[in-house]
Specification:
Blueprint lengths: L2 H26 L4 E6 L4 H12 L3 E6 L4 H6 L10 E5 L2 E5 L3 H10 L5 E4 L19 E6 L6 E7 L1
Parallel strand pairs: 1-2, 4-5
Antiparallel strand pairs: 1-3, 3-4, 5-6, 6-7
């Protein structure tokens, strides 16, 4: 066996190993593109989107007149809804969910539909008010379309 033929399998092995590591790293990397559905009239949605951009996400904004059908398609009950709906990495992100919670969701990949912050809590991302007033709120992990949830994070 010559040095060239002995090196060839080793080189192929190294190239294959490098390709496998790159692919594994890509599979583990959190997707940063998020599609956000909102009505054309909501200003706080723009505030939340700005938070997501600052956190490194790349939102694609789709304006619709009625979010009901989108929420229904992704299993978000009305009682757990807010003013905008995001889709990322196979999950739904409903309302003013902090970007760090989205990052955690994508890293942990729990078996769930996604996250929701029902309503529009004061001080949540996009719902800031002059004077910095905040209210305590929870990010909920939406387990199923029946509305079962569990607390994912507490804020405020």
């Amino acid at each position: 066996m010559t040095a060239i033929t002995a090196a060839l399998p080793r080189r192929e092995l190294m190239l294959g190993l490098t390709a496998a590591l790159v692919a594994a790293g890509s599979a583990q990397a959190a997707p940063r593109g998020i599609t956000v559905y909102k009505t054309p009239y909501c200003g706080c949605c723009k505030g939340w989107i700005a938070h997501m951009v600052r956190a490194g996400f790349s939102p694609k904004v789709v304006e619709v007149e009625d979010l009901g059908p989108i929420r229904a398609r992704h299993g978000v009950p009305f009682a757990l809804s807010s003013c905008h709906t995001g889709l990322i990495g196979g999950y739904v992100v409903e309302g003013h969910v902090p970007p760090k919670d989205v990052v955690r969701l994508l890293a942990e990949r729990p078996k769930a539909l996604g996250l929701t912050v029902p309503g529009m809590p004061i001080g949540s991302p996009g719902m800031e008010v002059p004077g910095g007033k905040t209210e305590a709120y929870e990010t909920l992990l939406l387990l199923d379309a029946k509305g079962r949830t569990k607390v994912f994070a507490r804020h405020g």
